[in-house]
């Protein structure tokens, strides 16, 4: 007989950036004692299979897709009657979906708790930049016929005009099949190469002179994972680089402060790959 150690509520728990071992000890105990465990499966990924996580967490995991989280109150209603956990790759509340869940909890008087973990934001200090030197985060979507939103490039230009760095998150399109099949051909991850080509295409349209092949940027590959790689170089030298498997991100720096520049140069002093 399992004894419930925690009050009934909905808990959003961050899994970190690498694999099942990144969960905190506190969160692990909560998961093991939960009545029901979901895992959000469309905003990011974790480098473990559902079976591996179920073995460690000692709970069956239900994959939660966009429809379940955005179009139903299933988790909120269950959180009023059971101890429910939603596992989130990275850390919760980066996605508006997670914030909306908490708003619905408040509206229905359902208690909730958020347990954070590592996120892509941790790379900022890792490479020597200051968090307060960053502007609005930009998401770069896949181009398609008739879909090339100018607002993406405009936000980068706005940040740079205010001397603020830009963290660029690259588009991913995944669903339950990523975990069901350990990598389905229907899942897409934007590479840093594609993102750079799209930025240069924007530049050819607006002629801002801000992002060119000689612009130095950071490429972040699988940050927080055992095989992470970080690059800092001119775009022209990075365009043909094989950055390996996802996830990739970019940082487009504005003018760095003296200490930032010293830290970055020290961090990358053995070349452009770390």
Automatic annotation (TrEMBL):
GO terms for biological process: methylation; protein histidyl modification to diphthamide. It catalyses: 2-[(3S)-amino-3-carboxypropyl]-L-histidyl-[translation elongation factor 2] + 4 S-adenosyl-L-methionine = diphthine methyl ester-[translation elongation factor 2] + 4 S-adenosyl-L-homocysteine + 3 H(+). Residues 10-176 form the Tetrapyrrole methylase domain. Pfam families: TP_methylase. One of its GO terms (molecular function) is diphthine methyl ester synthase activity. The keyword S-adenosyl-L-methionine applies. NCBIfam families: dph5. S-adenosyl-L-methionine-dependent methyltransferase that catalyzes four methylations of the modified target histidine residue in translation elongation factor 2 (EF-2), to form an intermediate called diphthine methyl ester. The four successive methylation reactions represent the second step of diphthamide biosynthesis. This is diphthine methyl ester synthase. The lineage of its organism: Eukaryota, Fungi, Fungi incertae sedis, Microsporidia, Pleistophoridae.
